[in-house]
Fold:
Amino acid sequence: MSRGTESTRLRGDSTSQTAVTRRAALQAAASAMAFATAPSAQAQKAGASPTLADERSTIRLVVNGQPRTLSVDPRQSILDVLRESLDLTGTKKGCNAGACGACTVLLNGNRINSCLALAAMHDGAEITTIEGLAEGDSLHPLQQAFIEREGFQCGYCTPGQIMSGVACIAEGHAGSPEEIKAWMSGNICRCGAYAGIVEAITDAAKEA
Ligand code: FES
Ligand code: FES
Structure:
């Protein structure tokens, strides 16, 4: 047998083996998909269509001091529950991906990006939003300081900045402008009102 023929055979064997391996893999994948979809098809035949959208959870939250019982979709974020179920639209949706801080609220006293927190996982939690800071007609000291220091321009990031600032002060991270900048770095202001924001937090920290 010539080397060329042997080489061709080897290539042929190799190609054949690859084809078999690939076919086997495709068959295995098809079987797995059929297995995965079978219960759904059976359920549909039986008249039930168990989809994720149909599975709702009942949770209890305390939002700005008020007890709330809610039926939530397991995919709903706290941000969406606040805005769409409770009509608390002060908390803003910016990136919806944890990158801008516009959605910051306090969850059991800690600041979080509410766009990243699934409501169904926080049954029993206490949530404070921008609507819960003022006491009657009296603004929270940090809200007042934002006005006095002009810590905003368009105002879209402002609720998140203020909620984050409240936590920044409570955490003891407002000892200097540099420290405030570092601990507020998760809150983006596209208008660039950073100087006023830092001054406002500095003022409010002195009162705390
Ligand atoms: S909207 Fe949540 S971090 Fe941007
Ligand atoms: S005030 Fe406009 S984004 Fe901050």
